[in-house]
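Tip: read the tokens left to right.
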């Protein structure tokens, strides 16, 4: 038995128009009360402005109907909630006070309003005027929607079959916005894998190998029989994609290893899971490019890696050196290599044995010694050796090292080269003695670096705040550990110097996606500006459950369907007979009349969806929806 959800304790107070705005703002902290408060006519406009961006669709819908919602937010909500906007009690007043306010709304909002039968008649006339047509990129769409509006053209005559109308009445020649395949393949491949298998099995894109490659790359669940067929494709790029796909059978991989195109063979080495027999063939190949590609494979065993570390081809040895976690004796072999790049790559590895770093610290090439000087966890003796290096660039690398011993940093603070002393002045692990030693320097560049050091002693803060050099003061003001009284002093004496220079890193895509994962209600606004690969980043994290992955993919796909109205894949999606109903609803509410028309014809269209489309203001859309409803009634 389904339990009725318990009513919130303050629901009545939130709905009461007599509740004060201050109390409503307080109650708005409760998530469950937001939809109720968004509908309350006593809610202040600043709160409604925030509600217009709320991730909860119910809150945004109520905001679109609230007369207190500020006009800029109201106009932005038209596209998503055209019917609710037209029901807003403020509309008659706006028409009197600002008769042409609707002209400020975006063109896509006009198309959404033309879905509504209740749209004011004079707006339909305006939408056909030169002012609207010339400033929009949807001229033909707008004109056709106006001409097919029920209040302009009337109902379709009974003698006309809505199923057989000319589609050019709905589909203009001019594109709506910019065409983009952008997110389509990734989303379809992950959300509707059966559709991808259907397309590939039917040869839907046989004349477009680039599309086939994109589908293979983005769909992890392609059937084996399809991959067998595609492995014989005449285009090498398709066979290459098949070679990389995780579902490709072993016997197909064996055939692809003999492919005449080298790039197809190289693709095999990039697979994470490769049968040992095939891997052995790759590492023993006469082709050094194949051996180089195989050298990076995660399944290689120690004897094979040892052989590759001594390969006659330098590119193979370089690839081997770039691997993490090699055995100590293999790193030792590579550290003795005659090639500078191999030794340089080894020097950049973390956690090597001391004797390997010691060997590389004596290398004839300065760049290799410089890399070693930046390593953490070396012995005191080795750090001391590097501090005496004849190259000042090596000593500079050591001066930046926050793990260098204190006495080493102190010695570098006395270095003969000014640039070394300047570099060590910014090291936050500098000993106290070195701070005061460097503070006596006459060189302003050294003092600038000291002023920005996060561990600068209080005494030096007080000394530097009276400095005559503007760059020193500016650096001091931007120091994250500056005492507030000193910062205030700098602001008073030098008002032209900004008080702070915070380095605020922009929120990364992955952090943003983590925020999405933790949302109970995911709204489209979180997805704006994100790319498919950013969504993929979060899905690859092991902490994300399968249920959450599906939720994020579905929500992102729905948002994409609503925003990318000119993606060429949309019509192909509508032709898919098994398209899930939640995606069909996005097409049924599209600003494009043809998509709404085809939604009404779709075999998966529910009765509720058909009833909604039967009220569409486009004469052709409503006619076909009503015809299908009538046919269903006859079958009952």
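Filled-in amino acids:
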């Amino acid at each position: 038995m389904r339990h009725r959800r318990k009513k919130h304790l303050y629901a009545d107070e939130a709905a009461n128009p007599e509740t004060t705005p201050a109390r409503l703002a307080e109650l708005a902290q409760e998530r469950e009360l937001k939809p109720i408060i968004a509908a309350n006519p006593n809610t202040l406009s600043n709160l409604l402005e925030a509600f217009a961006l709320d991730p909860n669709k119910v809150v945004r819908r109520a905001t679109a109907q609230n007369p207190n919602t500020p006009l800029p937010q109201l106009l932005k909500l038209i596209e998503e909630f055209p019917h609710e906007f037209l029901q807003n009690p403020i509309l008659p007043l706006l028409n009197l006070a600002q008769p042409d306010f609707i002209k400020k709304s975006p063109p896509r909002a006009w198309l959404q309003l033309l879905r509504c039968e209740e749209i004011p008649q004079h707006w339909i006339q305006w939408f056909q005027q030169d002012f609207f047509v010339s400033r929009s990129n949807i001229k033909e769409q707008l004109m056709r929607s106006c001409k097919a509006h029920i209040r302009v053209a009337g109902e379709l005559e009974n003698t006309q079959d809505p199923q057989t109308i000319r589609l050019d009445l709905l589909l203009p020649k001019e594109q709506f916005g910019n065409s983009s395949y952008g997110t389509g393949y990734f989303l379809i491949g992950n959300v509707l894998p059966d559709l991808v298998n259907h397309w590939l099995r039917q040869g839907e894109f046989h004349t477009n190998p680039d599309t086939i490659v994109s589908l293979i790359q983005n769909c992890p669940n392609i059937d084996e029989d399809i991959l067998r067929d595609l492995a014989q494709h005449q285009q090498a790029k398709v066979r290459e994609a098949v070679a990389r796909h995780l579902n490709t059978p072993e016997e197909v991989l064996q055939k692809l290893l003999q492919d005449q195109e080298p790039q197809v063979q190289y693709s095999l080495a990039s697979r994470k899971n490769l049968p040992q027999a095939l891997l052995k063939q790759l590492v023993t190949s006469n082709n050094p490019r194949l051996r180089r590609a195989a050298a990076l494979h995660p399944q290689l065993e120690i004897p094979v890696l040892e052989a590759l570390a001594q390969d006659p081809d330098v590119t193979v040895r370089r690839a081997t050196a770039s691997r993490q976690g090699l055995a100590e004796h293999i790193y030792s072999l590579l550290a003795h290599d005659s090639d500078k790049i191999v030794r340089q790559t080894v020097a950049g590895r973390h956690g090597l044995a001391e004797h390997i770093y010691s060997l590389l610290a004596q290398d004839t090439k300065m760049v290799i010694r410089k890399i070693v000087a930046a390593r953490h966890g070396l012995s005191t003796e080795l750090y001391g050796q590097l501090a005496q290096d004849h190259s000042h660039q090596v000593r500079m690398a050591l001066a930046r090292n926050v793990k260098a011993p204190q006495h080493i940093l102190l010695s570098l603070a006395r270095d003969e080269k000014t640039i070394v002393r300047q570099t060590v002045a910014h090291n936050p692990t500098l000993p106290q003695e070195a701070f005061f030693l460097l503070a006596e320097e006459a060189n302003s560049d050294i003092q600038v670096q000291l002023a920005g050091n996060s561990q600068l002693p209080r005494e030096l803060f007080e000394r530097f705040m009276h400095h005559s050099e503007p760059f020193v003061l500016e650096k001091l003001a931007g120091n994250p550990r500056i005492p507030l009284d000193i910062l205030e002093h700098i602001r008073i004496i030098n008002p032209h110097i900004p008080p702070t220079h915070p380095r605020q890193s922009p929120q990364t895509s992955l952090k943003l996606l983590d925020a999405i994962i933790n949302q109970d209600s995911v709204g489209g606004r979180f997805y704006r500006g994100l790319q498919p690969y950013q969504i993929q980043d979060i899905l690859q994290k092991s902490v994300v459950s399968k249920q959450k992955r599906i939720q994020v993919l579905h929500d992102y796909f729905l948002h994409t369907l609503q925003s990318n109205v000119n993606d060429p894949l949309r019509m192909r999606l509508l032709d898919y007979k098994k398209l899930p109903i939640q995606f069909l609803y996005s097409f049924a509410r599209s600003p494009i009349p043809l998509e709404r028309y085809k939604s009404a014809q779709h075999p998966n269209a529910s009765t509720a969806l058909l009833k909604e489309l039967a009220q569409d203001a486009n004469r052709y859309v409503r006619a076909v929806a009503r015809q299908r409803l009538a046919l269903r009634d006859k079958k009952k």
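The chain is about 55% helix and 0% strand. The two ends are 29 Å apart (CA to CA).
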